[in-house]
Amino acid sequence: MTLVEAHDIVLYRGSHRAVSASSFTIPKGKITAVIGPNGSGKTTLLQAIAGILSPSAGHIDVLGEPVKDIKHEISFVMQSVVFPTGTPITVKDVVSMGRYAQRGWFGMFRSHDRAAINYAMETMNITDLKNRHLEELSGGQRQRVYVAQGIAQGHEILVLDEPMTGLDLTSMRIIDDVIHAEVEEHGHSVILTTHDLDEAAAADHVILMDGKVVASGSPEDVLTRANLERAYGLGSLHEPAEVNGTTVVELPECTAEGDAIEADEPPGDYGERFSRYEAF
Fold first, then answer.
1. 192 by DSSP, 3-state: which?
2. What is the CATH number of domain 2-279?
3. Which of 34, 98, 269, 272 could share a disulfide with 149, CB 3.0–4.6 Å?
4. Residues 56, 61, 62, CA angle at the centre, nearest 5°?
């Protein structure tokens, strides 16, 4: 069954055209990874799928409906959330905001709202942090709080913008487990952006971006050398490697500023789902 169907969508950020005319589909009940170089339109596409940004041309249907009519079924987790320095907001406060979509800003929480908040904190292993102020947390802990907020919202579709970028190993493992549980245990759909080629190869469906959708389909069909050279540029790729049984090429690592640097180690073999974590 189809989760998302986009027809010739064009997306602008202000006066800048971030995504040129693109058509694609996303399957329901699967993990979809959106990958591409910096500035390729990944986050913009995610915002359009979540109903936050409207296309300037074309249209997007989610679960067979215009996305504006199904927004309440979509939980969107941003890469970072900015609060003014010194804001006395606790972890539980942030997670509780996930229920505002159902209750509104001034609605009273009921028992099932409180249960959803507690479940989300327990799932992300942050219950012991619930009374801590957000600014006291590490980057990995904060990201787990934001994902917990998304889980607390109640949803059919979980949309995450680079949920594991720059995180510590513990936070990466927890978020990875939650992503797979969303699909395998709860029957939900997950769409995420990533710079990590291994992470994309572990997904069920991949969308490759470079100012438009370059390719959309299974990892085997999308993560080919020809497609990646088209998106990332000739000469930017290393030799092919096996990732979860899929022959893909390795991209140079990137600094926080997005500049490519050479990897210190050659590509290797990877086991099922992120088994590289076991090396740590």
1. strand
2. 3.40.50.300
3. 98
4. 130
